[in-house]
Amino acid sequence: MAVLSIPSTGQEIKDPAEIKQYLNQRGVFFAQWEASVVFEDTASQEEILEAYRHELEPYMSANGYTTADVISINKLTENYDAVRAKFLSEHTHSEDEVRFFVDGQGLFWFNLDGHDVFNVLCQSGDLISVPAGTKHWFDAGEKNPFVKAIRIFIDTSGWVPEYTHSGIEQKYI
Ligand SMILES: [Fe+2]
């Protein structure tokens, strides 16, 4: 279950409907899917995608997404510091960044023009779509990362970080 936090005010929102409203008002799509399937660590990408096919297919076809895969980050991930650093600097993408959290958790930070910086802790069952061009960064944590998430794309080539080099994330790490 997600938690939305606004550091400048200390406000924290835990109610899913309120989180959805807050994000939707700012152009960020958020939903929750039933995540009742428990996967073994050895579960394949195909098994995970198949388990969510009934949710994935209608969502993808309604929004023009064509491909999906599964990303897994955990304590066995090689060069984790480098993996973490790649997403930890403020950046944008030329297409939406859509993630469904199957297990584990990660923190999406948003820097929307005209709004206070806020973050959303995404956990099992949370679906979030960061719109193309939105300034954001992502953190799976300094230690003991654990994220298992479905990534949904229009075109995987659009999902390259374009760094803003603002350094704003340093205020929040
Ligand atoms: Fe991103």
Automatic annotation (TrEMBL):
Molecular function GO labels: dioxygenase activity
Chain positions recorded as Fe(2+) binding sites: H91, H93, E97, H136
Catalytic activity: 1,2-dihydroxy-5-(methylsulfanyl)pent-1-en-3-one + O2 = 4-methylsulfanyl-2-oxobutanoate + formate + 2 H(+); 1,2-dihydroxy-5-(methylsulfanyl)pent-1-en-3-one + O2 = 3-(methylsulfanyl)propanoate + CO + formate + 2 H(+)
Enzyme kind, highest EC tier: oxidoreductase
Site features described as May play a role in metal incorporation in vivo, chain residue numbers: E90
Subunit structure, as described in the record: Monomer.
PANTHER family: ACIREDUCTONE DIOXYGENASE
Its biological purpose: Catalyzes 2 different reactions between oxygene and the acireductone 1,2-dihydroxy-3-keto-5-methylthiopentene (DHK-MTPene) depending upon the metal bound in the active site. Fe-containing acireductone dioxygenase (Fe-ARD) produces formate and 2-keto-4-methylthiobutyrate (KMTB), the alpha-ketoacid precursor of methionine in the methionine recycle pathway. Ni-containing acireductone dioxygenase (Ni-ARD) produces methylthiopropionate, carbon monoxide and formate, and does not lie on the methionine recycle pathway.
Protein family: Belongs to the acireductone dioxygenase (ARD) family.
Name of this protein: Acireductone dioxygenase
Species of the source: Wandonia haliotis
Lineage summary: Bacteria, Pseudomonadati, Bacteroidota, Flavobacteriia, Flavobacteriales
